[in-house]
Amino acid sequence: MYRTILLAFDESHDGRDALVQAQAVGAACGSTVHLVAIVDSPERILTVEGGASSFVNQGIEAQAVLDEAVRQLTGSGCAAMSKLNYRKPAEQIMLAAAEIGADLIIVGRRAQGALARYFNGLADRSTLPQLPCSVLVVAQSERTQAA
Questions:
Q1: Cβ pair 89, 104 in contact under 8 A
Q2: Is the pLDDT of residue 107 over 60?
Q3: Which of 41, 63, 117, 133 is most open to solvent, judged by the fewest CB atoms within 10 Å of its CB?
Q4: Is 7 left (phi over 0), alpha (psi -120 to 50) or beta?
Q5: What interhelical angle do 89-100 and 114-123 show, nearest 10?
Q6: What residues pair up with 136 in beta bridges, in sequence order?
Q7: Is 117 a residue whose pLDDT tops 80?
């Protein structure tokens, strides 16, 4: 049924829940799972945590997370590949879905953060008619709700 799946992915608990669902659907359907992560900028950004500041390259960190997720999927027998895109999450997800001919887009759901921005952008009235395929919004697992 679903041969080509696009998973909008980040390292959040909700992103991990979506990864588990993509793995299950991909294995059941013999699909290829294409993971896409979208970060704000390819440039280094200044972050402040616990009173210390440092420069972080979001792209390098996101690619490492994508690589780990691809290893998890391929280790379970799913065909998987990843791509890192920048800026405008809803637009990038639609472009990636069209580019790969996605049959299904999978996103996690949470009140705040990157995946919520993906979903909010995808759920916009002006965007919904443009979606090239079905969308699965993964509900929070019991583990995620407890965290």
A1: no
A2: yes
A3: 41
A4: beta
A5: 70
A6: 106
A7: no
Q: pLDDT digit string (tens) for 118-130?
A: 555 555 554 555 6
- Among 13, 10, 141, 137, CA closest to 82: 10
Q: How far apart are CA 56 and CA 140, in angstroms?
A: 29
Is residue 75 over pLDDT 60?
yes
Asked whether 4 and 32 are in contact (CB, 8 A), the reply is yes
The residues that bridge with 116 in the sheet, in sequence order, are none
Supply the pLDDT for residue 91.
Answer: 84
SS3 assignment, position 40: coil
**Phi/psi at 139 (nearest 5 deg)?**
-70, 155
Give kind and range of the element (H or E) at residue 22. Answer: helix 13-29
- The type of residue at 96 is A
